[in-house]
Amino acid sequence: MSGTKAPAEKAQILVLASGDREKGAAAEPVFAAISRATQWFGEAGNSQKMKLVLNAWLISMMQGIAESAQLAKTLGFTPDQLWSALEGGPLAAPYVKVKLDAIASEQFTPQMQLAHALKDARLALSLAEPHTMPGLENIAELWQQAADAGYAGEDLSAVYQWLSPSSKA
């Protein structure tokens, strides 16, 4: 599955499926009832691999959102002003809006816990070998520090709070 709690409640998640498609056809009505679409990725296990690819993207995106929101704050802008500058342009994405809203309200109710994202980052890094992913490696190191500082059970957007100079005081 690709999607968080809110889209799941509206049957707007994406089912990532793999394995024997003929046998999987029996599950299609269930998939249709709980999702907006199903994508098949071939042999068994490939859907889990794609989920890690998507989560690596999401993790990288969240770090960028958190850092940009911190920079905006430092320069005197709110998360809402940042979204206004993004909205309607090529950088706007619904996920960005959701996370900027969480940052603005300082409500970090877990959609994906930082600890779970960190686990997926490490798994993606191990499966990527022999290729390197220095950006994801750096994020994993930073997020481990955030987890150690008490943010492990928070939504991954809480990394914004951890990046705040006041969190390190």
- Based on CA inertia axes, which overall geometry fits? globular
Radius of gyration: 18 Å
What is the arithmetic mean of pLDDT? Answer: 93
- Unreliably modeled segments: none
- Give the fraction of residues assigned to helices: 55-70%
CATH class of the largest domain: Mainly Alpha
Secondary-structure class: mainly alpha
> SSE string, helix = H, strand = E?
HEHHEHHHHHH
Query: Beta-strand percentage?
Result: 5-15%
Characteristics of this structure?
169 residues; mainly alpha; N-(1-d-carboxylethyl)-l-norvaline Dehydrogenase, domain 2; 61% helix; 7% strand; 6PGD_dom2; 6-PGluconate_DH-like_C_sf
What does this structure look like?
With 169 residues, the chain is mostly helical. It folds into 2 domains: 5-40, no CATH class; 48-168, N-(1-d-carboxylethyl)-l-norvaline Dehydrogenase, domain 2. Helix content is 61%, strand content 7%. It contains 9 helices and 2 strands. It has helices at 5-9, 21-24, 28-34, 46-74, 79-86, 94-105, 114-128, 134-151, 159-163, and strands at residues 13-17, 35-40. The protein has a two-stranded parallel ribbon with strand order 1-2. Helix 4 crosses helix 6 and helix 5 (79-86) runs antiparallel to helix 6. The longest helix has 29 residues, at 46-74.
